[in-house]
Amino acid sequence: MFSDVKTIFIDLDDTIWDFTANSKVAMRIVYTRFGLGRQCPYERFIESYLVHNERLWTLYHHGEITKEFLLSERFRVVFEECGIALADAELPRRINDDYLETIVTLDRVVDGAPQLLEHLKRRGPVYVLSNGFANLQYRKLRSGHLDGYIDRLVLSDDIGITKPDRRLFDYALEVVGGSAETTLMIGDNYDADILGARNAGWRTAFFDRRGLCPRPDLSDVRITDLRQLIDLI
After folding, report:
1. Cα-flanking dihedrals φ and ψ of residue 139, to 5°?
2. How many angstroms separate the CA atoms of 105 and 103, rounded?
3. How far is it, in rounded angstroms, from Cα 184 to Cα 192?
4. What single-letter DSSP state applies at residue 53?
5. Bridge partners, residue 128, by sequence
6. Where are the alpha helices (DSSP H) in 62-160?
7. Whole-prediction pTM value?
8. Cis link prior to 164 (omega < 30° from 0)?
9. How far is it, in rounded angstroms, from Cα 155 to Cα 47?
């Protein structure tokens, strides 16, 4: 299916590095460290965080909020929803900073990611295209032992524009010297990765980890296991 593809980009968070799993571990560590269990059960806290974090990231993808707002708001709203009293107004931001420093040390990767990346690496260069923050994404790759597979990270932080904005995809092609019609984007976010790449004229492989594919016809292929791509590329 993708035998003519020459340039391959892959998303990082929840596509090859397991953000969801690592987030739960990091959150448990920070939750315990700051003694939040005295005011809110962990299960309620992490559920609230994951919901609001995903909502805020969607807004960030579309340029509706800034990175600074995302980082300051996601814990503040969780504290409010869980009824956690704020003795210190800066506590949500301190917890956010500690959480980020913790999560980048964790090593859980998505099942099948090393096998797929090893296969892709044998074909040629492999690039990451991510909306994640520059000071974190490199460290995630190293912690997950994925850095050896990746030739270059192209990040939204590079130009201040996020997926699905076509300008980031065009910039990525310019950086690596690719052509849209022979470039493939692999990602788990249907909006940011798949629709963004499709609008830029790229080929797409939607990694539907949660079985939520809204329009399978808009992606060249839908997979539920990364290893399924090995026979297609």
Report:
1. -70, -35
2. 5
3. 14
4. H
5. 10, 153
6. 67-82, 91-103, 113-123, 134-143, 156-159
7. 0.91
8. yes
9. 28
Q: Which of 62, 59, 63 is nearest to 77 (CA)?
A: 59
User: Could you count the other beta carbons within 10 Å of the beta carbon of residue 35?
Assistant: 8
| Backbone φ, ψ for residue 111 (5° rounding) | -55, 130
Helices 67-82 and 42-61 pack at an angle, to 10 degrees, of: 150
Give CA–CA dist 118/147, Å, rounded.
Answer: 11
For 100-110, write each residue's pLDDT tens digit: 999 999 999 99
Distances (CA, A) of 155 to 11, 118, 131: 10, 22, 6
Per-residue pLDDT reduced to its tens digit, 27-82: 999 999 988 888 899 999 999 998 999 899 999 988 899 988 998 898 889 998 99
Structure tokens at 176: 């690596």
- Type of residue numbered 105: T
In 3D space, the residue among 135, 176, 136 whose CA is nearest the CA of residue 10 turns out to be 176
Q: Tell me how far apart the terminal alpha carbons of the chain are, to the nearest angstrom.
A: 7
Strands lying side by side in the sheet with 221-223:
152-155, 127-130, 7-10, 183-187, 203-207, 221-223
